[in-house]
UniProtKB/TrEMBL annotation:
<feature type="transmembrane region" description="Helical">
    <location>
        <begin position="144"/>
        <end position="161"/>
    </location>
</feature>
<protein>
    <recommendedName>
        <fullName>Protein RER1</fullName>
    </recommendedName>
</protein>
<dbReference type="GO" id="GO:0006621">
    <property type="term" value="P:protein retention in ER lumen"/>
</dbReference>
<keyword id="KW-1133">Transmembrane helix</keyword>
<keyword id="KW-0812">Transmembrane</keyword>
<dbReference type="GO" id="GO:0006890">
    <property type="term" value="P:retrograde vesicle-mediated transport, Golgi to endoplasmic reticulum"/>
</dbReference>
<dbReference type="Pfam" id="PF03248">
    <property type="entry name" value="Rer1"/>
</dbReference>
<comment type="function">
    <text>Involved in the retrieval of endoplasmic reticulum membrane proteins from the early Golgi compartment.</text>
</comment>
<dbReference type="GO" id="GO:0000139">
    <property type="term" value="C:Golgi membrane"/>
</dbReference>
<feature type="transmembrane region" description="Helical">
    <location>
        <begin position="39"/>
        <end position="58"/>
    </location>
</feature>
<dbReference type="GO" id="GO:0005783">
    <property type="term" value="C:endoplasmic reticulum"/>
</dbReference>
<keyword id="KW-0472">Membrane</keyword>
<dbReference type="InterPro" id="IPR004932">
    <property type="entry name" value="Rer1"/>
</dbReference>
<comment type="similarity">
    <text>Belongs to the RER1 family.</text>
</comment>
<feature type="transmembrane region" description="Helical">
    <location>
        <begin position="65"/>
        <end position="85"/>
    </location>
</feature>
């Protein structure tokens, strides 16, 4: 056997790596196909959330898993509601990056999120499936007094959302757009004025 044939064998990917590569390609293919269907994606997300909640309620356990995934979802929501460039931070005037308009005469710039909607959905689905999978392993069922976790999560959610809403009010941005932005000013009547 010569050295060229042995190097060819070493350069070829193994069976296991080809298997996982094909799985990854199929997964990416279906994600790409699902991307434009926002309503379908979020329907799947709500269905997976309901399955997780019903599993937790049926088992009457795994409250620490529910609490941990709830904190993660809260973090995802905050990233989704936050602009990619935070106006609270002092940036240099030389920075050419997009910023939020500071007055009504500034140019309209669409709201750019720190976490885009698709990545928010994808992370939500993955975390929900991982949390649901954790409920099948008994060592994740740590005994806790769940009302304290619920109360602490509600307080944390309230304080975090209050801070985020105050941030939105202070820097005058709304992370959601409803409809198409319209131009303000005189409408073109179609008449040509020669002067």
């Amino acid at each position: 056997m010569d050295s060229n044939s042995t190097s060819d064998l070493r350069d070829r990917p193994g069976v296991v790596s080809r298997f996982f590569s094909s799985i990854e390609q199929k997964y990416q293919y279906y994600l790409d196909r699902l991307t434009p269907y926002t309503a379908v994606r979020w329907t799947i997300a709500v269905a997976s959330l309901l399955i997780f909640v019903f599993r937790i309620l049926y088992i009457q356990g795994f409250y620490i898993v529910a609490y941990a995934v709830g904190i993660y979802w809260l973090n995802l929501l905050l990233l989704f509601l936050t602009p990619s460039i935070d106006p609270a931070l002092n940036y240099d005037d030389d920075d050419d990056g997009p910023v939020l308009p500071q007055s009504s005469s500034d140019e309209f710039r669409p709201f750019m999120r720190r976490l885009p909607e698709f990545k928010f959905w994808h992370s939500f689905i993955k975390s929900t499936l991982i949390a649901t999978t954790c409920t099948f392993f008994e060592f994740f069922n740590v005994p806790v007094f769940w009302p304290i976790l619920v109360m602490y999560f509600c307080i944390l959610f309230f304080l975090t959302m209050k801070r985020q809403i105050m941030h939105m009010i202070k820097y005058r941005y709304i992370p959601f757009t409803v409809g198409k932005p319209r131009m303000t000013g005189k409408e073109d009547t179609g008449k040509v004025v020669v002067g």
